[in-house]
Amino acid sequence: MRLNDEAGVYPPTRTRPAKRADLVTEDVKRLITQRNLKPGDRLPNERDLQELFSVSKSTTREALKSLEVQGLITVSPGPSGGATIREVPLERTLQLIQNYLFFKDVSMKNIYNARRLLEPELAAGAVPFITEQQLAALENNIENCQPASQENGDLLNQRQADLDFHDILAAANPDPFLSFICQTINELLRRLVVFSTDTPAEEHVKFGCANVRCHSAILEAIRQRDADKVRELMREHMEEASGYVTRLNGRLDGRLILDSEMAARPLKLEPR
């Protein structure tokens, strides 16, 4: 039998017939919620799930596969294997967001409008919580982003590395939703922003030098634990960066992010 009101779970009204495996997928999600399962906890084994939901082995496996694709579980083979709850990977969330944005008319101006609002608060909120290890990581990032050449490949890589500075602040900020939003924007910029090929390398160098200057000032204010100053400096930084991106003809590459790209750069919010 399927989970019902005796188990404290009330299935919603459905507007169309669903596949049996889809129903089991939903029931497993209810089971996870009802039992308050956390990452690392195990689901009942395959045989128990079959008995619980009165379904076949193939239906159970199809449901588990669906949950695995959604990033909710990992399935290990073998007699001692089974399904384990996992935290939904940020990279999978990013991919879904980009799939959504692919059909929207989102511009660099839109993204930087959001960054002007969010990044100052992210940085200011991180100040009381940032660790010595994170301060060292910020300093190391600034050193690595000093423009050392005028090769376009190197310069573009440095512009992407500039975003690591903001990710470190995201890791230090205790607000998980603000951190998630800001790091997601950073990763969209890394993976999808392209610049005009005829833009002089000197302009990228100027952009890089401006970023280093702004990041250095922000780091100094963080060391002084001056959250108001950090907020002000980050707001100025976002204004300046937006202007550089406009002059460099930066735009979003309208495409879908591939699964292979997800594996190439795993994302995380843990302190670096």
How would you describe this structure to a colleague?
With 272 residues, the chain is mainly alpha-helical. The protein folds into two domains: 5-85, Orthogonal Bundle (Arc Repressor Mutant, subunit A); 90-264, Up-down Bundle (Four Helix Bundle (Hemerythrin (Met), subunit A)), CATH 1.20.120. The chain is built from eleven helices and four strands; from the N terminus they run αααββαααααβααβα. The protein has helices at 20-34, 46-53, 57-69, 90-101, 108-126, 132-144, 152-172, 176-192, 201-223, 227-247, 259-264, and strands spanning 73-76, 82-85, 193-194, 251-252. The chain has a two-stranded antiparallel sheet with strand order 1-2. The chain has a two-stranded antiparallel ribbon with strand order 3-4. A hairpin with a 5-residue loop joins strand 1 and strand 2. Helix 1 crosses helix 3 (57-69), helix 6 (132-144) packs antiparallel against helix 7 and helix 7 runs antiparallel to helix 8. The chain is elongated. The protein starts with 19 loop residues before the first helix and ends in an 8-residue tail after the last helix. Mean pLDDT is 85; it is low at 266-272.
Topology, element by element:
Blueprint: H1 20-34, H2 46-53, H3 57-69, E1 73-76, E2 82-85, H4 90-101, H5 108-126, H6 132-144, H7 152-172, H8 176-192, E3 193-194, H9 201-223, H10 227-247, E4 251-252, H11 259-264
Antiparallel strand pairs: 1-2, 3-4
Helix pairs in contact: 1-3, 2-3, 5-7, 5-8, 5-10, 6-7, 6-9, 7-8, 7-9, 9-10
Protein name: HTH-type transcriptional repressor NanR
InterPro entries: GntR_C, TF_FadR/GntR_C, Tscrpt_reg_HTH_GntR, WH-like_DNA-bd_sf, WH_DNA-bd_sf
Domain HTH gntR-type: 18-88
